[in-house]
Input
Amino acid sequence: MSTDTATIKRIQQKLGTAADGIMGPATLRAICSAIGIPASAQVPQWPTQAQVRLGTSIFGKPGCEQNLVNITPAYQLYFDGKPVNTIRVHRRVAPHVQAALREVLEHYGQDAIHRLGLDQYGGCYNYRSTTSGKALSMHAWGVALDFAPEQNAYATKAPRASLSARECEAWWEIWESHGAVSLGRARGYDWMHLQFALL
Output
């Protein structure tokens, strides 16, 4: 065990969190709480979907190439069985996507990521309407991502949706610590989808 891991475990034991030696979102929240940083200050506050669709939020207009960047994921993702080397996201959410994927890798490890389908990528930037077709999707701004789409189709409910499993709780907590919203957890459908816009 490295000194860093041992130190983190001692800190976690003192804070009363799971002593796994990983500096994940739960540990960071506990540290912030212990030193008096309010919970509201720990999570980024993103605009609402309605604000995003007005085109006047921090995300600007949909499909704006100047706002889109390619990032390299922290672990290997696959799209339709083919390796994904980069993913295209809005520049404002890019550091949060990168950090969340690093935290997922630290928490689960590559084997569990593959077993749970967390490496099955369904896409991010895509200038298109929502599934209902009534408005532009958050994908049109590059602020929504889909994972494990085959096991978490739009209408697939818990417990059949694989991302609704208890073992995926940490997955969602990691994304939520960066201000992302799960449609599955919030609305009970589209478990593949997370977005950096409030409902």
About this structure: The longest strand covers residues 68-71. Residues 94-116 form the longest helix (23 residues). The chain has a mean pLDDT of 91. The helical segments are 3-15, 25-34, 39-42, 49-54, 94-116, 169-176, 183-187.
